[in-house]
Amino acid sequence: MGICLNLEKERLMKTAFDNQVMQKILPKLNGNAAKLEEPLKKMLELLDQDYPKSAGKISRMLRALEGQGFTSFIE
After folding, report:
1. Of all helices (H) and strands (E), which one includes residue 45?
2. In angstroms, rounded to a whole number, what is the distance separating the alpha carbons of residues 9 and 21?
3. Res. 75: pLDDT tops 90
């Protein structure tokens, strides 16, 4: 029973962290490729497996950066 509770707690913590990255960190990022390409790629590497909302948004931001040379949180 304790293992199930620990897994649920871990899942809830990851969801909370994912939401905070989306709400507090990513909205502050905007700029050109020279400024953001490397930081966004590193963030994607760190968040890709366990934080799907943040990873998805970062992927979209990287696509905008590649296509337009500029990205921001607002699409």
Report:
1. helix 33-47
2. 18
3. no
